[in-house]
Design a protein that fits this description.
The chain is α/β, with parallel strands linked by helices and 327 residues long. The protein has eight helices and ten strands. Helix 1 packs across helix 3, helix 1 crosses helix 4 and helix 5 packs parallel to helix 6.
């Protein structure tokens, strides 16, 4: 009887303890989201959102009002019916139909949990995604999120506003995944099926994935696509520390490498450095913008510069609905 009483007491205590753990976990989640929001909102409010707005136009122009013609107005905008009725020239004024969907395609595979410079690739990607989501919210655009491994892990449909930006950040940071592998093709296939209207698609990935280029080419024909490729300095340069055992985070495969072998290390470095240039060239050929984000770099400043260059390209007369490589 005494044993039974003790068991009943433990069962009664388990409920409050579990509730307390859940509450602590919720508070920690909110603290982490708030830290990232505070870090990126200053960039968004001061320099980023204007460049974002100029870089991505909406779906077209819609009529706003008639205005009496004044010297300097475009004579092609004169409305001859109104002009004939009033006896004075009037022009039609239009405003941009600005609403756009920013769709973030986020690589949640195990290879993103790597970083040698004090930051993981996944952390850099989360902050970049936060900048995009809050910029879209500030500009009145919708934001959507697709998280993928070797399958689509989760989907947040397009919505507007700060609450949606916070949901995007919450899912990126804390939503569980069922797989460790990578298939960018699976994420792109999901976009092909579900996103029928033109969108600004941002791919946050290290691109360590099986063949996906054919589907990416098709997606880029419909949408304005930007690849933000996550990289780490140790993926280009290895320290000379003798024998090192590497473990593939996605497959679990181990490999022993002699970092004292100068020939092998030099070949490793040259291959990986050349890879970045090849991605930029190949993606530019299909009209996809490319920006590498390093774990040891100033990734928020890189994003600002990137979108300022993109905005300048549009102001120089580039077709805002035709993606172009920004160098």
């Amino acid at each position: 009887m005494a044993t039974q009483g003790k068991g009943e007491a433990e069962a009664r205590d388990a409920g409050p303890r579990e509730q307390k753990r859940r509450e602590e976990r919720t508070r920690e989640i909110l603290r982490q989201i708030r830290r990232i929001e505070v870090r990126v909102r200053r960039k968004v409010n001061t320099v980023f959102s204007g460049a974002y707005h100029s870089s991505y136009r909406g779906r077209g122009m819609e009529f706003d009002e008639f205005k009496e013609y004044t010297p300097g107005d475009d004579v092609r905008a004169i409305d001859w019916n109104v002009t004939a009725r009033t006896g004075r020239p009037w022009v039609r004024r239009y405003r941009e139909e600005r609403e756009l969907t920013a769709l973030i395609l986020f690589d949640a595979s195990a290879s993103q949990e790597f970083g040698s410079a004090g930051r993981l690739k996944s952390s850099v990607a989360a902050e970049a995604a936060a900048v995009l989501a809050f910029s879209a919210a500030q500009n009145g655009d919708k934001t959507a999120l697709v998280r993928f491994t070797d399958r689509v892990e989760s989907y947040l449909p397009p919505r507007k506003g700060r609450p949606q930006a916070l949901r995007v950040l919450r899912d990126i940071l804390f939503a569980p995944v069922k797989s460790k592998g990578t298939s960018l093709d699976a994420g792109l296939a999901f976009i092909e099926r579900t996103q029928k209207k033109r969108a600004a698609v941002f791919i946050l990935s290290d691109l360590l994935s099986p063949a996906f280029f054919e589907r990416l080419t098709r997606v880029a024909r419909r949408h304005d696509v930007t690849v933000l490729r996550l990289t780490d300095p140790r993926e280009e340069e290895l320290p000379s520390v003798g024998l090192l055992e590497f473990r593939d985070a996605e497959t679990g495969e181990n490999r022993l490498v002699d970092t004292g072998d100068k020939h092998w290390v030099r070949r490793f470095r040259d291959i990986h450095r050349a890879e970045g240039g090849k991605w930029e060239k190949d993606l530019g050929r299909i009209g996809v913008d490319y920006l590498p984000l390093r774990t040891d770099g100033s990734h928020l400043d890189e994003l600002v510069r990137f979108f300022h260059r993109k905005a300048m390209a549009h102001r120089r007369g580039a077709d805002p609905l035709s993606p172009s490589i920004i160098k």
